[in-house]
From TrEMBL:
Protein name: DNA-binding transcriptional dual regulator Crp
Keyword DNA-binding included in the entry's annotation: yes
GO function term, MF aspect, one: DNA binding
Keyword Cell cycle attached: no
Keyword annotations: DNA-binding
Domain Cyclic nucleotide-binding: 34-133
Pfam family, one: cNMP_binding
């Protein structure tokens, strides 16, 4: 087995363990910067609504125009975001994709295609899981998502400044 195969096997094992062992999934989410604003007692119910997804290089995590039915938080790896087949950004560990779904009261479509650059492990929270959240978990999830949106807005502002003469 070469080194790349060994890494892929290790990542597959790691991903499977996170999906099957709730304490390991919680601990991994606790280490993820996206979840920093959420106290541990409220992260637990969120982690219970989370599934772990693994993507290989070139796999589409989301497709532009598809119905938005899940929010993804990248735990490992990076992905490239495309709008109209043009690169518009990079999604890194600790960042999210599909946060608009969380705020929408209706079905909305994805605004970008996001493709895994290499192996990506992501926490997936689908619409049903979001709807199951109650109490303070919702308040803290709101805070985490608003902070993520603020960081994306800052990045967009920096890009606009770079493009201006």
């Amino acid at each position: 087995m070469n080194e790349i195969d060994a890494v892929q096997t290790s990542l597959a094992s790691y991903s499977k363990r996170l999906d099957e062992v709730s304490a390991d999934r919680f601990n991994e989410l606790r280490k993820c910067s996206f979840f920093d604003p959420i106290p541990s007692e409220w992260l637990k119910p969120i982690s219970e609504q989370t599934e772990i997804r693994t993507f290989s290089a070139k796999d589409c995590i989301t497709r532009e125009g598809e119905d938005m039915n899940a929010l993804y938080v990248v735990l490992y790896g990076t992905a490239t975001a495309y709008y109209n087949k043009k690169v518009v950004g990079t999604i890194r560990s600790g960042e999210c994709v599909g946060e608009g779904m969380y705020f929408a009261n209706e079905n909305i479509s994805r605004s970008a295609t996001v493709v895994a650059d290499g192996q990506v492990i992501a926490a997936e929270i689908n619409k049903t899981g979001i709807e199951r959240l109650r109490g303070e978990a919702v308040v803290y999830m709101d805070k985490a998502l608003l902070l993520a949106l603020f960081k994306k807005l800052q990045g967009a502002n920096r890009k606009i400044e770079e493009l201006m003469p």
